């Protein structure tokens, strides 16, 4: 097979090919821990500018690529980026996250939402993804980035980040019909958005259901899982060969359910031992993760030991090495460099444990 030699490493592993070492990238690898990013942030203090002005977003996305040559280069974006395209006005406050100016609380507001037309609402996404593909060629895999219906609904209804999720849970438990209407509209919009990203150059797409870990398992089955499935089914209808990754923060209690979402790869957080995650998800499911981002504050020997431990437990098939969550802002850049160097020196034949 001459084809696979030019297929990027991460894409081959994500498709289920046997590779000589696990591919490696890092969530939030573009960001505050890098001096280059902090310098750029001074020039462009608005997150929306940094993620929506193509040349700035391209530069930010490529900063870790130039510094560390990860196997995955992810679009620099936010999960709420497509919301204005549905008629949900938002901003992203520095250090605080998304702010929805008129939170969705009534059926009338939800009925006023319109379908997403990415070419009209988000043309910058195509420009950014095409540039990333052209820059990294077949040396790395370009990843797309979308939010999941439950998490986007939670932002849209709460109006901002939350510790208790009491407003969206009030809606879920006392007026679920309205919430299901919203979740359905969001799922269809996210499917359109994910397809647009793939058509624009994304080779793998990761969906972030950041807040679904705040649901009890029975509520996850009602408000998160069916809508994850709705997105993934629609994307698979048109793009069956694009691997899809699902991340849920705080997912230890719903790991098996994540495996039922239709995702090809489940991103595992560090609260679960990787060997246990493998057992719980079954042999057919590919995994991503799952180092504690705090490990990168340890010594080089400690970092190496933890990488080896994770890779041994994940086994020699269907594993993308990553952190269990985003890299922390205070992480020393040299430790990030060491993480990538160590990962790339691995040989799966030598770490079977």
Report on the architecture of this protein.
This protein has 353 residues and is of the alpha/beta class. 47% of the residues lie in helices and 12% in strands. The protein contains 15 helices and nine strands. A seven-stranded parallel sheet has the order 1-4-5-6-7-8-9. It has a two-stranded antiparallel ribbon with strand order 2-3. The radius of gyration is 19 Å and the shape is globular.
Protein topology:
Blueprint: H1 9-14, H2 35-43, H3 47-52, H4 54-68, E1 72-74, E2 90-93, E3 97-100, H5 107-112, H6 118-121, H7 123-136, E4 141-147, H8 149-158, H9 166-174, H10 176-200, E5 204-209, H11 217-238, E6 244-248, H12 255-258, E7 265-267, H13 274-281, E8 286-291, H14 300-314, E9 319-323, H15 333-345
Parallel strand pairs: 1-4, 4-5, 5-6, 6-7, 7-8, 8-9
Antiparallel strand pairs: 2-3
Helix pairs in contact: 4-7, 7-10, 8-10, 9-10, 10-11, 14-15
Computed structural class: alpha/beta
Listing every helix as H and every strand as E from the N terminus to the C terminus, the arrangement reads HHHHEEEHHHEHHHEHEHEHEHEH
Q: What does the average pLDDT come to?
A: 96
- The end-to-end distance, rounded to whole angstroms, is 30 Å
Number of strands: 9
**How many helical elements?**
15
Characterize the quaternary organization of these chains: single chain
Rg over alpha carbons: 19 Å
Outline the biggest β-sheet.
7 strands, parallel
Our estimate of the beta-strand percent is 5-15%
The low-confidence parts are: none
Q: If strands are numbered along the chain, what order do they take across the biggest sheet? A: 1-4-5-6-7-8-9
Give the CA-based shape. globular
Helix % is 40-55%
